[in-house]
Amino acid sequence: MAYSGRYSVKNPSKYEGDPTKVIYRSLWERHAFKWCDDNPNIIKWSSEEVVIPYLYEVDKKYHRYFMDLKLKTKQGKTFLVEIKPDGQTRPPKGARRTKRYLTESLTYIKNVNKWEAAEEYAKDRGWEFVIWTEKNEPLKSIIPKSTKPLKPIKPYKRRKK
After folding, report:
1. Which of 158, 149, 159, 154 minimizes the C-alpha distance to 28?
2. Which of 79, 150, 70, 63 minimizes the C-alpha distance to 111?
3. What is the pLDDT of residues 37-81, one digit of tens each?
4. Which of helix, strand or coil describes residue 82?
5. Catalytic status, residue 104
6. Which of 5, 54, 90, 126 has a Cα-to-Cα distance from 116 of 20 to 30 A?
7. Is 18 a catalytic residue?
8. From the candidates 14, 37, 48, 68, which is the catalytic residue?
């Protein structure tokens, strides 16, 4: 089940872009937005304001990739951040020739094409491209140790009727 909605920016002066139009497409994204908004080591941030063209190998056409986050830190570094479930960052496993395997394969190819374009785009500007998943500690390389880490999200549980 996907969770999405509007994020209400608490510190509009830190947000690059229109702070009234910030959309999260997962609880992990919402959680990351809150972390950026509250973190004193993040001086500027934006969501889906950076658009990167990429070539999708399957249809041989150019598409547009909207970066989940762009962060500027007090240390002077700029990061482009993709927030993805860990399962979508690795090639699919399982029985080949199933509809699920083919769908996951196409998703993985598209993601790799996007990430290669984002890596090149960031490198050209002296920035870094990183992927945050639920399984890694992505913030250690960005923020000094004195900053509180991002707390894990509790799993969603349906209420019994």
Report:
1. 154
2. 63
3. 999 999 999 999 999 999 999 999 999 999 999 999 999 999 999
4. strand
5. no
6. 5
7. no
8. 68
Rounded Cα gap, residues 59 and 125, in angstroms: 28
Q: Which pLDDT tens digit goes with each residue over 6-42?
A: 999 999 999 999 999 999 998 888 988 999 999 999 9
Angstrom distance (rounded) from CA 85 to CA 132:
8
Q: Are 36 and 49 in contact (CB under 8 A)?
A: no
Q: Which of 14, 37, 70, 84 is catalytic?
A: 84
DSSP assignment letter at 148 = P
Domain boundaries, the chain: 43-141
DSSP string, 31-81: HHHHHHHH-TTEEEEESS--EEEEEETTTTEEEEEE-SEEEEETTS-EEEE
**Parallel, antiparallel or unpaired: strands 128-132 and 78-83:** parallel
Number of helices (H) and strands (E), helices first, in the chain? 2, 8
pLDDT over 90 for what percent of the chain? 61
Which of 123, 105, 104, 125 is closest to 115 using CA atoms?
123
Reply yes or no on whether 84 is catalytic: yes
